[in-house]
Specification:
Helix content is 6%, strand content 56%. It has 4 helices and 42 strands. It is globular. Residues 1-41 have low confidence and may be disordered.
């Protein structure tokens, strides 16, 4: 059965869901009236989640967008410390473990790790500030109010580079009363601690402040046999100061400044076979990285240092609200990557035979941005948000390539990439309330993006391994319209259906790290996405349960792709002609009793190339089928029909949270299971080393403390069955190593920690 046929059936089913849910809701309320209430006389209700996905505060169940929201309390309880920790709880989301720069994929689409200067297809917004680069926000995952993950193009309201989706992070704000907490934890597997402290309260009648800080010191999870330590060692420091000034009912100004330093000592690459696909439970236990890898004399590791400042100001202008959002974002990264030297047979070749090539990609970035928007009052026939946006940024990427006795050549080469970017846009969204139950939401953003870039390369010392071509320079100027339209209908007060058509864009750019890049290959074009979505959001039994369903199809034109060719030891960046993802997402929450909450999500995804001429050769193809050294052969190579990377057909999670009364204390237990079906993790689409098998991971938390949560002690386990999964893989070419092998970037292993929190 084709995906189109399956989706047609799903759409037909979705059309029946509102009526079924409405009748079920009536039955549930009848049952409540006949003794279905709790023992306290109050019917249990799920807590309402407020989001700002449409630039206004709205209940999650009222927003016609496929969105997952996670509260700050859940983020803390689940030990979510970065974007990779998030993906287990969000349908159709994957985050690639690529060192310091995480790469986010939503519904099969993401920018990939190979062109470091890529703008992200899924942008992150921290307190309203745009972050188009994975390293931009290294310190937001503590003391959050909430996180919102929006699936599908969000070009009309969020703007730049949200062709596949957007992630919005909202920091906790200062409080009107004095409060705070101190939380400490020790991880038995990582043999290290984390410490978080927050204090918040008023400084005067109109001014309040919040100060938050976090320190983490932990060991890694893969043993480096060279120095006999578990790597990578994690060393984090984060601090955030937030001020809130409310001199009157019509003025609310919040200023935030935060600093983050994230360091990893060591790496996560593990060698594997190119011919055997059996990875037993011991795979990834050990690696071997010497202290003078490729003769570079540099320690393996990576780090990010960030500064982020933001001002969010709301002014009441009669019935309207004027909002100003200004921000500064800066980061520097450092990275030197060595690769596991262990051969597939378990030996380490003598004289550094598997340590002949290493590289580094340090970055430096500055961005200033400003947004102004005005929102009309609610309750009118036409409700609208109108705004303007501008940002300017400077980006520098330096690449170092170190090699020792590769083709009898030893040396050090480097490249430098500089890019200046200016972008501005005007946008608006209007809601036409035709009746109390029927509304049309129409949005449009016009954007102008200008970029200029230079690329230089040199042999710093020794002999040249890669051919050094001429310097490159380029300019681009693009403009595009991103419209969206949503028809929303309230079948009952608790059941809403919507249908959406939306477009998104991602700007073009330049190749940042390819030696001897050709003039025509230095620049690539923008890409466009179109999303068709049908959704249902429902609340049952007066708040006992919620069921949300979305059916979608996303089409991409001129999809930007960057791939690594191991035979030529270089990166290719180009625009694939067409790609499509289709699928279904469902999220369910149920509160059968006042003490028990159940949750589950399930997503189906079919994401593949419709047309991709000029694609890199595949791992299983012969030279006669595809010759990477022959431009004509590559030009004729098309991988239409292959699935997109990092896109499992099935993903989801299921869990529970239970509270038990122990007199003056309460016991809170919870568990969550996340699963993924198999998916490809390597450019060459090897069915052996480039395919990650399906997996399931289990997390759990047991907490005890008083009912007012003045203090608690919790035992937290993540990946309890110690499932070994790989974030990405590559074939390491025989030309630069003594033994040809695969290399896998390993996801985190099992972690069990004890945590204590005191609140005041």
């Amino acid at each position: 059965m084709s995906i189109s046929t399956r989706l047609a059936g799903a759409v037909a089913m979705a059309a029946l869901v509102p009526a079924l849910l409405a009748s079920e809701d009536a039955r549930a309320q009848d049952a409540a009236g006949q003794g279905g209430a709790s023992s306290t006389g109050q019917q249990p209700r799920l807590g309402e989640i407020v989001v700002t996905a449409q630039k206004r505060e709205q209940k999650l169940q009222d927003v016609p967008v496929s969105i997952t929201a996670v509260s700050g309390e859940e983020i803390e309880n689940l030990k979510i410390t970065d974007l990779r920790s998030v993906q287990s709880y969000v349908p159709n989301m994957a985050v690639l473990n690529s060192g310091v720069n995480p790469v986010v994929f939503i519904r099969g689409f993401g920018s990939g790790p190979n062109n470091v200067a890529f703008d992200q297809e899924v942008s992150v917004y921290l307190d309203g500030i745009y972050g188009g680069r994975g390293a931009q926000f290294s310190a937001p995952f503590f003391d959050l109010e909430r996180m919102e993950v929006l699936r599908g193009p969000q070009g009309a309201l969020f703007g730049r580079n949200t062709a596949a989706g957007a992630i919005s992070l909202v920091s906790a704000r200062p409080t009107s009363t004095l409060e705070g907490y101190l939380s400490a934890g020790y991880d038995f597997d990582r043999q290290g601690f984390d410490l978080t402290g927050v204090i918040s309260g008023p400084l005067s009648d109109t001014l309040s402040a919040r100060l938050a800080g976090k320190v983490t010191r932990q060991d890694g999870y893969i043993r480096n046999l060279y120095n006999n330590r578990d790597e990578p060692l994690l060393r984090d420091e984060m601090a955030r100061l937030t001020l809130r000034w409310q001199p009157s009912a019509d003025v609310d100004i919040v200023f935030k400044n935060e600093y983050g330093k994230h360091r990893l000592k060591g790496g996560v690459t593990v060698s594997g076979s190119l011919t055997e696909d059996v990875y037993d439970s011991d795979f990834g236990d050990n690696r071997y990285i010497s202290d003078n890898y490729a003769g570079a004399g540099l320690p393996e590791g990576s780090g990010i240092e960030t500064w982020n400042s933001a001002i969010n100001a709301d002014f009441g202008l009669g019935d309207h609200t004027l909002t100003l959002v200004g921000g500064y974002s800066h980061f520097t990264t450092s990275r030197f990557t060595g690769y596991d030297e262990i051969a597939p047979d378990g030996t380490v070749p003598a004289n550094g035979g598997n340590a002949r090539f290493g590289n580094g990609f340090p970055e430096d970035f500055d961005q200033w941005s400003l947004e102004a928007r005005i929102a009309s009052p609610l309750g009118q026939f036409l409700e609208y948000v109108l705004g303007v946006y501008y940002d300017t940024s400077d980006y520098h990427l330096h690449q170092d390539s170190y090699y020792r006795e590769v083709f009898a050549l030893t040396g050090h080469q480097s490249t430098d990439f500089h890019q200046d970017s200016d972008a501005w846009s005007i946008f608006g969204q209007g809601t036409f309330n035709f009746t109390p139950d029927l509304r049309l939401i129409a949005g449009l953003r016009y954007s102008q993006v200008d970029k200029s870039a230079t690329f230089t390369q040199a042999t710093v010392s020794g002999q040249a391994l890669n051919p050094i071509g001429p310097d490159r320079a380029g300019d681009l100027s693009e403009d595009y319209f991103d419209p969206s339209g949503t028809l929303q209908y309230d079948v009952t007060p608790d059941v809403m259906v919507y249908a959406t058509v939306a477009r998104g864009s991602k700007s073009g750019g330049f190749v940042s790290n390819t030696y001897n890049v050709s003039e025509e290959g230095f620049q690539f074009a923008s890409e466009r996405s179109t999303n068709y979505e049908l959704g249902v959001k429902s609340t049952l039994g007066g708040g006992v349960a919620t069921i949300n369903l979305a059916i979608f199809r996303m089409d991409f034109a001129d999809l930007q792709q960057s791939a690594y060719d191991p035979d030529l030891r270089t990166f290719f960046t180009r625009n694939a002609a067409e790609a499509r993802s289709e699928g279904v997402e469902m999220e369910v929450q149920v509160m059968p009793t006042a003490s028990l909450t159940l949750n589950a999500s399930l997503a189906y995804l079919d994401a593949r190339f419709l047309d991709y001429p000029g694609a890199p050769c595949l791992a299983y193809e012969t030279v006669a089928e595809c010759d990477s050294s022959d431009p004509t052969s590559l030009a004729e190579h098309n991988i239409a029909g292959l699935p997109l990377l990092f896109a499992p057909k099935w993903s989801g999670n299921a869990g529970f949270r239970h509270r038990a009364d122990l007199g003056s204390l309460q016991l809170v237990t919870g568990a969550n299971m996340q699963f993924r079906s198999k998916y490809y993790i390597a450019d060459g689409y090897s069915p052996i080393w480039g395919l990650q098998g399906g997996w399931a991971k289990f997390d759990a938390r047991v907490q005890i403390g008083p009912h007012d949560d003045a203090w608690n002690i919790a035992l937290v386990g993540r990946n309890l069955t110690d499932e070994r999964t790989r974030g990405a893989a590559v074939r390491f070419p025989g030309s630069i190593t003594a033994t040809t092998r695969s290399l896998s970037w390993m996801d985190e292993y099992r972690s069990i920690s004890i945590n204590g929190t005191v609140r005041f």
